[in-house]
Prior knowledge:
Elements: H1 3-14, H2 16-26, E1 31-32, H3 33-39, H4 44-56, E2 60-65, E3 68-73, H5 75-89
Antiparallel strand pairs: 1-3, 2-3
Helix pairs in contact: 1-4, 2-4
Amino acid sequence: xxxxxxxxxxxxxxxxxxxxxxxxxxxxxxxxxxxxxxxxxxxxxxxxxxxxxxxxxxxxxxxxxxxxxxxxxxxxxxxxxxxxxxxxxx
Length: 90
């Protein structure tokens, strides 16, 4: 994993709200964005920002179905990050 990719993921995970969002997404095979909107105590604009950060970091995949978005954890990226973290920290 490239250093800039590792740092982008670490930065995305450093925000407690983003981490909570990722935990919720990771708990499902696929999560409707509308469901997440109803569960998170933030505005849609704030949630959208956090999702964009997670997608930019490569942690989340967003699949559009018409006007509805469905979210899923990119397990390959998550596993690569965990492996790199273990290599760097031990």
